Amino acid sequence: MLQSLGISPQAESLYSLLAPVPSARPDDLTAGSGLRPEHVAAGLAELGGLGLVSLLPDGAYRALPLGMVVTALRQARQHELDAAVLAAESFERQITAARLSADENGIVSLVGREAMQAASADLCDRAEHEVCILDQPPYATDVSPHEDAAEMEQESPEFRALRRGVRMRTVYHPGFDERRLAVMNEFAAQGEEARIGRVPLKMLLIDGTYAMIPTMSSYVEDGPVRASVLNNQALVEALQWLFERAWEAALPAFSDSADHGGRDRTEHLIQLLMSGSTDSAIAGQLGVSERSVRRWVSELMDQHRVRTRLQLGAALVRAGTLAP
After folding, report:
1. Cβ-count burial of 38 within 10 angstroms (0-12 exposed, 13-18 middle, 19+ buried)?
2. How many separate domains does the chain show?
3. Which one, 14, 90, 234, 245, has least CB within 10 Å?
4. DSSP state of 105
5. 138-163: pLDDT as tens digits
6. What is the pLDDT of residues 269-280, one digit of tens each?
7. What's the rounded Cα separation, in Å, for the pair 284 and 170?
8. Range of the domain at 15
């Protein structure tokens, strides 16, 4: 039962003998366990090192409560696992960097979510001038909003690049729930330049030198997760051109005003509508009910003399309400 926590079978058997009684001497434990005296001595030393038994003045041993010790052991094992994961990610990044340097064609194939995350972190940490992103689901990393920017910095390599002062331009594919919109707000607060538009594919561009794109199978639910990291100048220049066209065609995600609290309600509503955000996400951003959002949208539709939200979006673009 305790072996999963790193406790040996002989130490566990000794603890099982000690736990029901007030105390026991090593000779008694040798007779009761059937272990050799030296194995009993080693098991008691192991239990003592873990804080599971204590030596009494008369030479007997007493078992100590298991609950707190096991909790501490579990936490220690979790810390060890966390450290192992970080070490593995770092090693994966070193391998990817070495392969990029050695590959004649400047193309490295990645297989698996972990490899993609490690490569993305390596590329973003290399960035010196600009990170360009075409963003659409599905996502290799599930980034959540944080109140503490330091926590977000640990979780997101893109956020780390922003905090270092690297320019970041992102085109987001329309359609956000409240959680995703909150993350976008955190990035915007750090200086990300964000626009909303049709995204032809997911892409990460670093300083016009490196690019990372997933294969088409990665967009399919339960499909194999694969990507390519490119250090081929001709290919990267073509992808940079593609990004610039998507950027020019997209609409601003947020107002240029830094004072989001004082922003005109209608302007904010229109921006959120144009981003493709759900009524629930818009209500969360504006601090109102979904019923209020639907009423305001209805008022906008009446104002522009349209009957559907699709027609409203076209009318807002024609009116120049939001322009790139």
Report:
1. exposed
2. 3
3. 234
4. T
5. 766 666 666 667 778 777 889 999 99
6. 777 776 677 788
7. 23
8. 3-64
